[in-house]
């Protein structure tokens, strides 16, 4: 199996005319080469309507794109879409080329991948004294930071070809201080080009330009033609009188373009803007569409057969590493079968591990079954590995455990397997492996995945309790019903940090069991609340939604079933957890009111019977709950296996890990035993007046 190869382009709806000309020309000469759009900005709706016509996918990893925006802000003082081309090193292709969309392509791009066998980076132009000023000021020489050869390269980055292993966003962000020091010596009018040049020439990989290779004797090598030089002999979109080096593409850059059309070679540009991809047969376009979809998700979308990754072809087969400093490489040190496995190394955090995008688009009700073999690198101490699905939706990211922490050693292979049913709307799913703690390198091998659509997936397989597993959901149910029994007919008082499906499902469970309850849920992301929960809450009697940032309170009719739901929301945005280098600012967000609100509501220990901790700032929330702990108060923590929560757990007099991903704490172990006791009789019979 060959490396995943493809082409990226950068555009948005504001550049639609240029993008259309690019797409028509590209597909004429590259009818089946996978193509992927990197959004220059978020307005890509009209452009995306062309996906099926031109067979391209979209790199829609919000975490990656925001990390690119972080780089632009750091170097240019404001977000610049040009820096999003850095996403190509985090995308689905192992080997790739990139085009600015103000180009028309006039040749197959296949030859570029042959050149990448000997180079880590290829640009179109370079080593041209006349264009060095578009990268460096003359003052760069006095810094002594670069050699004359490195300075003279001055590659134009409107076209760039590379390999995934040559650069990463983690590298870029880690080197921002040293790049920033050279900012006074960089061309002020360019965005990404000077920084990319610095990264290329200091990477340790070979770099070259197509023009440089042509001048060095590469006969007949296609090269970039600048849009400012008139192109003679154009017929039906083809150049009929090329020179010794035929045009690979024509590029209108800088002042040569206006908002809607180039100033020079307009006829050539219009031929492709208005074209319908001449000479490209329907069969070729259909084949391109099929290929583009496959590469966009890094795995085939055919659900009739298992998707497998054995790494025997020497490539990562679509696997990459999560944002961070870790690396994935094919290794022949150990293998479960055959001669190769995938090694994840250079890990700085437990969550840095190999990841695989799942088939798109995700469909609620679909069931994914995963199986792989794992083993620590030789000489490493035993550790625990788990499999997690990263679920993107409504501007937020949630993390669903598929396989809980499983002991793994360096001496033998261990099988990790499990099933995951998507029970929510989602825009993107990514499977990844991580460790409970530590950063030991580890191998994976012989991965298989099967996907069954909602037509064959039963709702019985999904947890009815929210994002928890069925096992953990049953445990939460047991604790709530036992806590209600201890209330002797008084309403159960529950406070939840982190609204979600549990805010709807668990109060409903209590209502059906005849339990009166006051359920308070605290949420920091108004966008998520308004999109995902508010329509359901509005339809439920007895629900109240309060916007805490001095906004009007939304009150809904009084409860009829003895259960009140009171949701209180702050508008702090999605605030991803610290799962990636792009989210450091999220950790500093002001959530003091969100964390301390229960103390302001009650102020006295024992005012709540159960705390559920399943939102942001869980350590601080655990400490707030500890202050409000009464003799009959229980605290439940979800995703309790994450070691950075454990310092807060140590403050509790009694606690234990239960189920798949839960921890429960209280004032003494006897209460825990009582709350976790499975009663032989139906819980509903404990409550007089249970409702049918």
Automatic annotation (TrEMBL):
UniProt keyword list: Hydrolase
InterPro entries: CenC_carb-bd, Galactose-bd-like_sf, Nucleotide-diphossugar_trans, SAM-dependent_MTases_sf
Domain CBM-cenC, residue spans: 309-435
SUPFAM superfamilies, per database record: Galactose-binding domain-like, Nucleotide-diphospho-sugar transferases
Keyword presence, Transmembrane helix: no
Superkingdom of origin organism: Bacteria
Protein name as it appears in the record: CBM-cenC domain-containing protein
Native source species: Streptomyces olivaceiscleroticus
């Amino acid at each position: 199996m060959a490396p995943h190869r493809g082409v990226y382009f950068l555009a948005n709806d504001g550049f639609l005319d240029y993008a259309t000309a690019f797409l028509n020309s590209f597909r004429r000469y590259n009818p089946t080469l996978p193509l992927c759009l990197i959004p220059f900005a978020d307005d890509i709706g009209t452009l995306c309507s062309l996906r099926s016509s031109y067979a391209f996918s979209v790199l829609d990893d919000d975490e990656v794109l925001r990390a690119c925006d972080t780089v632009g802000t750091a170097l240019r003082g404001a977000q610049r879409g040009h820096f999003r081309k850095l996403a190509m090193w985090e995308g689905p292709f192992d080997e790739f080329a990139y085009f600015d969309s103000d180009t028309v392509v006039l040749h197959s791009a296949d030859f570029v991948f042959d050149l990448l066998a000997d180079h880590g980076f290829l640009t179109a132009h370079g080593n041209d004294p006349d264009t060095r000023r578009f990268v460096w000021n003359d003052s760069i020489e006095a810094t002594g930071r670069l050699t004359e050869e490195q300075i003279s390269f001055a590659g134009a980055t409107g076209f760039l070809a590379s390999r995934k292993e040559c650069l990463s966003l983690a590298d870029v962000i880690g080197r921002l201080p040293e790049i920033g020091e050279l900012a006074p010596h960089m061309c002020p009018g360019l965005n990404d080009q000077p920084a990319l040049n610095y990264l290329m020439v200091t990477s340790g990989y070979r770099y070259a330009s197509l023009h440089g290779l042509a001048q060095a004797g590469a006969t007949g090598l296609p090269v970039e033609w600048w849009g400012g030089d008139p192109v003679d002999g154009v017929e039906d979109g083809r150049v009929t009188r090329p020179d010794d080096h035929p045009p690979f593409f024509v590029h209108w850059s800088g002042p040569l373009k206006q908002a809607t059309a180039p100033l020079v070679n307009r006829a050539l540009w219009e031929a492709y803007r208005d074209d319908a991809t001449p000479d490209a047969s329907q069969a070729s376009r259909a084949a391109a569409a099929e290929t583009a979809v496959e590469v966009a998700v890094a795995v085939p979308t055919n659900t009739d057969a298992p998707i497998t990754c054995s790494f025997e072809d020497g490539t990562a087969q679509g696997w990459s590493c999560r944002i961070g400093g870790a690396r994935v490489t094919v290794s022949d040190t150990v293998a479960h079968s055959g001669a190769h496995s995938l090694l994840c190394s250079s890990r700085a955090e437990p969550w840095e591990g190999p990841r695989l995008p799942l088939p798109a688009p995700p469909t609620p009700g679909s069931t994914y079954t995963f199986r792989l073999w794992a083993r620590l690198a030789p000489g490493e101490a035993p550790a625990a590995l788990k499999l997690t699905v990263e679920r993107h939706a409504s501007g937020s990211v949630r993390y669903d455990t598929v396989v809980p922490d499983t002991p793994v050693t360096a001496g033998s292979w261990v099988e990790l397997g499990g099933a995951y049913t998507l029970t929510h709307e989602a825009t993107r799913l990514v499977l990844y492996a991580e460790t409970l703690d530590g950063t030991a390198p580890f191998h994976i091998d012989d991965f298989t995945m099967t996907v069954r659509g909602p037509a064959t997936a039963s709702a019985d397989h999904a947890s009815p309790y929210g994002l928890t597993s069925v096992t953990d959901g049953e445990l939460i149910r047991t604790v709530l019903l036992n806590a209600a029994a201890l209330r002797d007919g008084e309403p159960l008082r529950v406070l939840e940090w982190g609204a979600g499906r549990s805010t709807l499902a668990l109060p409903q469970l209590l209502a059906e069991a005849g339990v009166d309850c006051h359920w308070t849920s605290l949420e920091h992301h108004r966008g998520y609340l308004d999109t995902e929960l508010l329509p359901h809450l509005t339809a439920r009697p007895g629900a109240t939604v309060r916007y805490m940032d001095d906004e009007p309170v939304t009150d809904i009719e009084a409860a009829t079933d003895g259960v009140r739901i009171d949701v209180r929301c702050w508008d702090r945005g999605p605030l991803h957890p610290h799962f990636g280098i792009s989210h450091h600012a999220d950790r500093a967000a002001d959530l003091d009111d969100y964390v301390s609100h229960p103390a302001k509501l009650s102020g006295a220990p024992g005012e709540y019977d159960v705390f559920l901790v399943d939102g942001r700032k869980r350590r601080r929330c655990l400490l707030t709950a500890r202050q409000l702990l009464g003799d009959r108060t229980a605290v439940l923590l979800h995703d309790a296996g994450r070691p950075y929560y454990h310092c807060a757990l140590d403050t509790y007099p009694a606690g234990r890990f239960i189920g798949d991903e839960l921890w429960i704490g209280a004032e003494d172990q006897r209460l825990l035993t009582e709350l976790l006791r499975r009663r032989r009789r139906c819980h509903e019979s404990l409550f007089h007046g249970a409702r049918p």
